[in-house]
Amino acid sequence: MTAQTLATPSAATVPAGRAKTPLSSARAGWLFVAPFGVFYLLFLVWPVIYMFITSFFHTTLVKPGFGNFAGFANYREMLTKPEFWSALWHTIQFTIYTVPPLVILAFVFAVLANRVRRGQWFFRLAFFVPFILPSAAIGLIWFFIFTPSTGLWNGFQTWLGVADPAPVLGTPALAMIGIAITTIWWTIGFNFILYLAGLQDIPREIYEAAAVDGASTWRQIRSITIPLLSRTTTLVVLLQIIASLKIFDQVYLLTAGGPGISTQVLLGLVTTTAFSDYRVGAASAASVLLFIVILIVTLLRQVVERVQQRREA
Which uninterrupted H or E stretch holds 261? Predict the structure, then answer.
């Protein structure tokens, strides 16, 4: 009997429990995933399927079931409804107001914080704490700031010498800007953390070599930081556009779509149609249209990413 034969255990000597380890591990893994899978199917997959189905029916909250078949009538109604296009424009307007500042400012603050040698944790905490606050708390804070005659913004304008300051949330031309400012203050911390994580993955030796070659700080940012963070920027822009298109909480808490319908966004129209007019089918059609807009944005991001990969190759 050779040494190799002695070192290799026979099948009979291997414990039965050890032979079943892969199957047992797979079963344990499925058991751990099962609770999340059940909630995922019940609260995400099924509502999406239900939304698509009810968009083709005259579904209402006052009657059980899907109701009568409507075909594309709900979509036709929404596409010919002035309130739908107004809400869509307000949603796009909010996206235009928020996406560039949330991307540019987050990048600038992350670059500045990354250059701090000591106390960097304080800047992480300061920027990220507002993001973890609930939307109700954010609404109360900024509603107090924008309150006419007694709010902090009104007091600041009075201190500057403005005789009759206009109420931000009560002026149609300023209400959406006030909501955008609230959102920027609230959510900039998330993009800040993403950029800071990307910056810390860039080796400092690259910057040191560039400094030895005489590159200025601005040249280092333009030639090193921005190109190496291109994928992070693409991800941040995509996430921010999708989040802005799904705006609802801030508008509902600060203005409830007013004054008039000057800040009525698409999800606000969906909520009003479904729970005030009890027309779930029409609201589902509007939701599907918003889903298509978000899907188009996602596909555009994929195209941009492939173009970047080809350039890098």
Answer: none
pLDDT in tens, 103-123: 999 999 999 998 887 878 888
Q: Of 276, 102, 273, which is closest to residue 184 (Cα–Cα)?
A: 102
Residues in the chain predicted with pLDDT less than 70, given as ranges, are 1-23
Question: What amino acid occupies position 159?
Answer: W
Q: Where are the domains of the chain?
A: 75-312
Q: For residues 110 and 196, is the Cβ–Cβ distance under 8 A?
A: yes
Strands (E), the chain: none
Please work out, in degrees rounded to the nearest 5, the angle formed at the alpha carbon of residue 51 by the alpha carbons of 48 and 57: 155
Q: Give CATH for domain 75-312.
A: 1.10.3720.10
Residue 253: CB atoms within 10 A of its CB come to 18
User: Please, are residues 207 and 220 in contact by the beta-carbon 8 Å criterion?
Assistant: yes
pTM: 0.85
Torsion sign over Cα 60, 64, 68, 69: positive
Strand partners, 279: 60
pLDDT single digits (tens) 39-89: 999 998 999 999 999 999 999 988 888 889 999 999 999 999 999 999 999
Tokens representing residue 109 in the block? 């603050």
